[in-house]
Each structure stands twice: as C-alpha cells, then as structure tokens.
Amino acid sequence: MPAVDGRPYSPGLEGVLAGETSIALVDGQNGRLLYRGYPIVELVRNSTYAQVAELLWTGEWPSEAHLPTAPLSGAVLTALRALPNESSPMDALRTAVSAWGASARLSWPPTPDQARDVTALAPSALAAFARLRQGLEPVDPDPDLELAAGFLYQLTGETPDEASARALDAYFIVGAEHGFNASTFTARVITSTRSDLASAVAGAIGALKGPLHGGAPSEVVSQLHEIGSVEHAERWMRDAIARGERLMGFGHRVYRAYDPRAAALREVAEGMAGMADWLKMAVAVEDIALRLFEELKPDRVIKTNVEYYAAAVLQGVGLPPDLFPSTFALARHAGWTAHCMEQAGANRLIRPDVRYVGPPERPLPGVAAAV
Ligand code: COA
User: Fold this and answer.
1) Does 71 share its domain with 200?
2) Are residue 149 and residue 244 in the same domain, yes or no?
3) Is 253 in the pocket of ligand 1 (CB under 6 A)?
C-alpha cells in the first residue's frame, strides 16, 4: 500500500481493514462463504431465508422461523403512487424505505424488530410498485407465505408453486450477506453517525443501485440469448474475448475459485421445473467458457460467479429482468440490517482523513491578504 506523509493511502480503501465483523466470512482464495460460521451451500440446502435472517440478526440458529411480507402503511403507498411509472424499481424501493422511516419514528440503536420490519416491508413495496406501473392495484400480503413466496404472490396475485418459492428463497439466502461491500459499508457509515435504520438502508439501496455494485444477471440472460445455441457458443465467446469484451457471469474481484454462491444456485436451478432447456444450454455454455478461460487467460483464475446462476433462478421464477437488481436488494436487507446492529453495538464514528491536493492558501481575488 503506498504511503503519503508516512501514512498508508489506499484509494477506494482497497486492502484496508476498516472494521471487524462476526457476521460473515468471505474467503475468496478458497471459494468459501460462511454466515456466522455456517457454509452457504449447507444453508441453501437445509434452511430458509427466515432462519438465515434471524441467524444474521441475532447470531443464534433458530430451529424454526417465519418471516411473511408486511402490509404497507398509507404513507408508503401514497409515496409509491406518486412516482412516475418509468421510475427505476431501485428508486421506488429507496423511496418506500424512506417514507416508512419518516413515519416509523425509529430509535437508536437499531434492533432486530426494526430489522424484521424493514426486511418484511421491502418486498411488499417493490411488488406494489411493479403493479402500479402496469396500472394494477397492489395485492395485500398473505401472512402464511414466507418472504420470497409472498413477494411472488404480491407481484402476480397468484400463490407461487412450491419449486419457484423454494428457488427464490434460496436466491434470497445466497444474496443475504457478503462482508464489507460498498452498500453494507454505506449502511455502517450512516449508522455510525447514530442515524436511524431507515436512513442506513435507504443509503445502502442508493449504493447498490450503481452498476459497479448491483451486478447484472440480466446481462447474462441477454448474453445467452445472443449466443443462441450451444453450437455457436465457442465461436461467439472466442470472438468476444478477442475483442477484449467480458463474458457476463464470470470472474470476481474477491473469489479466485468457483464462487460458492454460484455452486449453490446451480443446484437450485437444476431442481427447477420448466428450466430444463434454458438450463441445459447455460450449463453447456459455462463448461465451454471455463475451458476457454483456461486456454486464453492461463495466468488468471476466472470462474463462474453468482450472477450466472442468479440469472437462471430469477428468469426461472418469471421475474422481469428490470426487477433483478431490486430483488437482489430485497435479499440483502438481512445483511445490511445485521451490520447496522453490529456497528451500533461497538460504535465508532467512521470518519477517515483525506489528502488535500488543492491550491495553497491564497487571498480572494480583489481582497488584500490579511496581515
Ligand atoms: N470475461 C473475459 N475476461 C475477463 C473476465 C470476463 N468475465 N473477467 C476477468 N477477465 C480478464 C480481463 O480481461 C483481464 O485480462 P487481461 O489481464 O488479459 O486484460 C483479467 O481477467 C483481469 O481483469 P480485472 O478486471 O482486473 O479482474 P477483476 O478481478 O478486477 O474483475 C470483474 C472482476 C467482476 C469486474 C470481472 O471479472 C468482470 O468484468 N466480469 C464480468 C461481469 C460480471 O460477471 N460481473 C458480476 C460480478 S459478481
């Protein structure tokens, strides 16, 4: 890390330890992701998002948990109805969380109940916006359904089949938490000022909206459409790499091994009815891509990342691609809010220094320098 005036300096804070956490371990070198010590693949196979969220919030493993979507208050619905139809779903979600915070009178420090409330409200708000922009009325929550299933129900007005509900729940587990990424760090910075949970989550949604963070599983879908068939895949990908383009759904800043989230979601996608043809092609294209990376980029480990199979799951449950990033945000609510509580529990205002590179002290034009 370069030093300036004897102090370490890292633009983007890359490589800087900026805190401690006991929520998740992201081990990029070995392709491991643990939530409070439990491997992500085990959690996806054997638990629900409601259990995982409780685990992240409290540190305790609940043998049972139920987290249905929550009804929207008048303030949130009024705010959503006032938005133009062409607003981005991320903007709508951020607006809903903000409107909720304005009437919820949240105390500091943040609590598990506050975390449950905002995590349960967010899917209802996103589903309501998705319907309002189509000229449809919002659907009230079904209190018997878990969060992911409840979200699908409120989007379509129909109870989802078991396989779709399970697949989206698994996607929510995989997206729940991932260390000190930009949106989580944003939430912690806001919490560190003793601001409230709604402000922290609204700020985190704003950070996740940026294309460098929010990811783009929808681009994986368009890439597979462009490739068209397995027979064309090798030629298409060789040409793309030769032009210096990126294959979507491959490579990662942290993981130097197969992304464990991709492995977990691949299993889920393979179990989904109605995905067979699309998935068969995705698996075949993945194999060809991995072989090409070994041949063409031998010095770099480039493996499948989470977006590749996230695309399969999200497409498989019938979500429109423009809801992919905001659906990821719904899943991440558990992680954001767990980090807010952890930050508040051992709070230190996050306030780094900055190196001044502007002009030296000088008088205002036309004003004599002070003596
Ligand atoms: N397709 C083709 N080449 C890739 C690649 C991909 N998906 N990912 C990395 N590379 C290559 C780069 O071209 C570069 O090669 P070069 O040294 O010959 O120029 C080398 O690997 C290093 O690239 P760099 O951008 O420094 O790696 P990174 O680890 O910082 O990149 C990503 C991480 C995610 C930005 C990058 O892998 C990427 O753009 N992936 C595609 C988009 C995607 O799937 N995003 C979702 C991430 S969860």
Assistant:
1) yes
2) no
3) yes
Task: Report pLDDT digits (tens) over 190-217.
Answer: 999 999 999 999 999 999 998 888 766 7
Q: Which residues pair with 8 in a beta bridge?
A: 3
Per the domain annotation, does 356 fall within a domain?
Answer: no
At residue 371, the pLDDT reads 61
Nearest 5°: phi and psi at 3? -115, 145
> Which pair of tokens denotes residue 300?
């770099």
pTM attached to this predicted model: 0.93
151 within some domain: yes
Q: How many domains would you assign to the chain?
A: 2
Nearest CA to ligand 1 atom 2: 246
Q: Say how far apart CA 44 and CA 233 lie, in whole Å.
A: 30
Residue 64 alpha carbon to ligand 1 centre in Å: 40
Mutate to test the pocket of ligand 1, among 208, 243, 250, 291 (most ligand atoms within 8 A of CB): 250
Beta carbon of 261 within 6 Å of any ligand 1 atom: no
Are residues 266 and 243 located together in one domain of the fold? yes
Shortest-distance Cα residue to atom 39 of ligand 1: 246
- Note whether 221 and 312 are within 8 A (CB): no
